[in-house]
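Hey team,

Filing this mostly as a record. A colleague (T.K.) asked me to run one chain through the structure pipeline before their review meeting, and I want the input and output archived in the tracker in case anyone asks later how it was produced. No errors, nothing strange. Just documentation.

Input sequence:
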Amino acid sequence: MQVTKEQIEQAKSVDLVDYLINKGYEVGKTGNGYKIKVKDKFSGDLSSLSIFENRRGWKRWSNGTHGGDAISFLQNVMDLNFQEAVLELSGGQTMYTSAKAVHNSNNNSVLEKHLILPESANVHSRVCIYLNRERMIDDNIIRQMISDKKIYQDIRNNAVFVGLNERQEPKFACIRGTNINIPYKGDCDGSDKRYAFSIEGMNKSKLYVFEAPIDLLSHATMANHITNNPDAWKMHTRISLAGTSDVALEHFLKSHPDIKEIHFILDNDEAGQTAAKKHCDKYSKLGYKTVNHILKANDMNEELIDYITKPLLVHKKLYIL
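Output structure:
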């Protein structure tokens, strides 16, 4: 993705407070700065975030990350890369917006944050073609996810991946563009990362962890190919983190006490491997058996495509199926 100098300057000048309010967050004045109001706090939320008086600089006190503009905020907090952040802030590509603003007696903008799912197209042809032909995900897995209402096609022909809570209610959703010439990805406004995209398998003691839903589905597809069994993917439980934070993993483990082993298959880049090593150390100290599987390719989907098109490049022993 290419961005211009004008887009970069425009993105740098974005008022971070206004941006967050437009995205559905409740932001209030605190002293000389601003804070996001979180009603139901959880590990990894944005309650520790402070936005400075100039409405651009910020600091997240829970982990020490900080920056001077909205670009750095989207990079460090929302897991966007530089180009994606600039395009989002400059209007080159726009994420879905959520609730409308109302005003209280103090004339402060107040928004109730809740998940807004993109409108469904009521057809799935573009998503099926994209996931099956471009990403080489098993067609039967795709159709099962559609049947389970975990994947659908929106009116812009994007693929929407939905995370459900314990009552099978949508609480998280992320979007992936199906036009390979115009890459696009982002979380829907109001998404709760505790409920990131996941699938539960018959094996309740072992969990596979990925950064993105497509990587998760690629691993499921790989299981079918390696075993030559179209139902092999149903054996294991898998979760995507919607990035590298372990917020979703922490929450998932609380409601799945039978899990004893955690297998991390994060991206083979600096961010992915730094997070994988950190998570392995954290959860091994908590009593779990942890394994960090380092890919030959950049991510699990690339690994799957290489396995199908260049099988000699991929070592089967990487995958404990």
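Quick notes for T.K.: Confidence is low (pLDDT under 50) at residues 93-113. DSSP finds ten helices and 16 strands in the chain.
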